[in-house]
Amino acid sequence: MWLAAGGTIRAHWTNEIHEEWMRNVERDYGIAHSVLERVRKLMDHAAGDALITHYRHHEHLFTKTDTKDQHVAAAAVAARRRSRADTVTIITWNLRDFDRRELAKVGVVTETPDAFLCRLFEKFPEEVIAAVVRMQSNLRNPSKTVRECAETLATQGLRNFAELIAGAID
């Protein structure tokens, strides 16, 4: 999120994507829905034009993509058109749910969060480090050092990215 707030990337999502991540976080981590609603509002505010609407008409392009994820691919097409980007990346741990050929035809690719962040770090190291420091400085309960943040990121599956961050702060 700090990468989007800082202008390094343009993030996009839909209300349906919001509902999905909120449902998963509430179920997996026991965080109250009211807290997640607050985060949702902060995300929408911080990322400006991130919220994508009017995307469902693109779903027909993704017959080989998992039906539960066609809305994500359709939103990526709408985001690509809005941003006029050559390529839009869907960041997901569920790469197998998306048909790469279908996506490629419309200028969309998939990438794991770890691979995406590592690629950003290679391309924009100063901006990525600044975003991590900004994230760390906003942690209050409990507060953490940048190294502790990197360790937490590693436990969340961002192992390679965490190694890059830890190496950069040494």
Description:
By secondary structure, this protein is mainly alpha-helical. 58% of the residues lie in helices and 5% in strands. It has a two-stranded parallel ribbon. It starts with a helix and ends with a helix. The model has no long low-confidence stretch (mean pLDDT 91).
Shape category = globular
Low-pLDDT segments: none
Helix/strand/pairing category: mainly alpha
Strand content: under 5%
Supply Rg.
16 Å
Q: How many DSSP-defined strands? A: 2
Mind summarizing the main beta sheet?
2 strands, parallel
How many distinct folded domains?
2
State the oligomer: single chain
What is the number of helical segments per DSSP (H or I, 4+ residues)?
A: 9
What share of the residues lie within helices? 55-70%
Task: Please state how the strands of the largest beta sheet are arranged side by side.
Answer: 1-2
Summed over residues and divided by their number, the pLDDT gives a mean of 91
- Rounded to the nearest angstrom, the distance between the terminal CA atoms is 24 Å
Secondary-structure element order, N to C: HHHHEHEHHHH
Question: How does the SSE layout of this entry go?
Answer:
Layout lengths: L1 H4 L9 H15 L3 H14 L23 H14 L4 E4 L8 H6 L2 E4 L1 H11 L1 H13 L8 H10 L3 H11 L1
Parallel strand pairs: 1-2
Helix pairs in contact: 2-3, 6-7, 6-9, 8-9
Could you give a quick summary of the protein structure above?
The protein contains nine helices and two strands. With 170 residues, it is mainly α.
